[in-house]
Amino acid sequence: MWRPAAVLLTVLAILTAAAGADAARVRLPRPKRGFQMRMGKFTIPAASEREVCEFRTLPNRKPIDVQEFEFEMTPGSHHFALWAYLGQDRNPADFPDAIVDAPGCIGVGPSDTFDRALLGGAPSPHEVTRFPPGIALRLAPHQRVILNSHYINGSSTDPLTPQVVFNVSRARPRTVRHHAEQLTLGDYDIYIPPLGTASRTAEWIAPFAMNVIQLSSHEHKRGTRVTIHLLSGGQDAGQIFENDDWNHPYEYWPAAPIRVEPGDGFRFTCEWKNDDDHPVRFGVTTNDEMCFMVGYYYRDDESVPPPRVPNCLLQTSGLLCFATTVP
């Protein structure tokens, strides 16, 4: 659900120190209410990166309301994402039975449509996502999920075998009033000139009323800044978010939900600095770039299915949408 030069050098130093044939076992105390899951074993060759995906089934026999996700990983992770598979296919033969390589887990699974929703994730080795009191994220019984891990091995000589473990903690009974859904908005029209800087601004208009409870951003290593403005009544209502650390993006949890009425929306701007002698465009590797605004919200009425939303991938929970670039 799921963070410029000095920072990058520090990160690379950590990656190099962490590289090895087998990293020390990552441990995370099990939750008092909930369960723990550990991703299968995979290895990243020296001086390379690898993005892998693994289908799993969660152990919950009944629907559960998640109050908190906690992630613990070997250093070197670019990101970890936890996706819920929302398709109706339950044939085991249609699902990969081992860890597979796939950027963004595109093409992994039995459906040609994007039948998934982002539940949460982590851009750093240890991350906790805890929803405000009265708000939780709902998981279906034996929820099918995709574990999506992207690692960079900074060692020039040794392979890295990382470990990923996470906890799912339930909310206390009869405390949940609203269920959170994930919001991901992306601008894909990216061009950063060689040895230059660039910025892109995009807008997205909400098709229904939303109560936004968290905001963050996602760029790659050339990212220098992301800002988000609220659009209200067709006017810019001001900046509500800013992040200047691509590797550890700021998470904004407002004291009260940000109310977004139908027709209101967001304008977000990504900025980059390219120190390489070649242009950089959108892509899934760390040598490419991204521009995403992410967050969580809840709807006023959860008893009715969400409407179909233009320029969004088909989902039955949450939104993953293409924003409109502002000239």
Please describe what this structure looks like.
By secondary structure, the protein is mainly beta. The protein has two domains: about 5-180, Sandwich (Jelly Rolls), CATH 2.60.120; about 180-325, Sandwich (Jelly Rolls), CATH 2.60.120.230. Helices cover about 5% and strands about 45% of the residues. It has one helix and 23 strands. The chain has one helix at about 5-20, and strands at about 35-40, 50-55, 65-75, 75-85, 100, 115-120, 125-130, 135-140, 145-155, 165-170, 180, 180-185, 190, 195-205, 210-220, 225-230, 235-245, 260, 265-275, 280, 290-300, 320, 325. The strands form five sheets. Strands 1, 3, 7, 8, 10 and 11 form a six-stranded mixed sheet that branches. A five-stranded antiparallel sheet has the order 5-2-9-4-6, with no helix packed on it. Strand 16 and strand 17 form a beta hairpin. The longest helix is centred in the N-terminal third of the chain and has 13 residues, at about 5-20. It is globular. The two termini are about 30 Å apart.
Q: What's the structural blueprint in terms of helices and strands?
A:
Elements: H1 6-18, E1 34-38, E2 48-57, E3 64-73, E4 77-85, E5 100-101, E6 116-122, E7 126-130, E8 135-139, E9 144-153, E10 164-170, E11 178-179, E12 181-186, E13 191-192, E14 197-205, E15 210-218, E16 223-232, E17 235-243, E18 258-260, E19 265-273, E20 280-281, E21 292-298, E22 319-322, E23 324-325
Parallel strand pairs: 8-11, 12-22
Antiparallel strand pairs: 1-10, 2-5, 2-9, 3-7, 3-8, 3-10, 4-6, 4-9, 12-21, 13-20, 14-19, 14-23, 15-18, 15-21, 16-17, 16-19
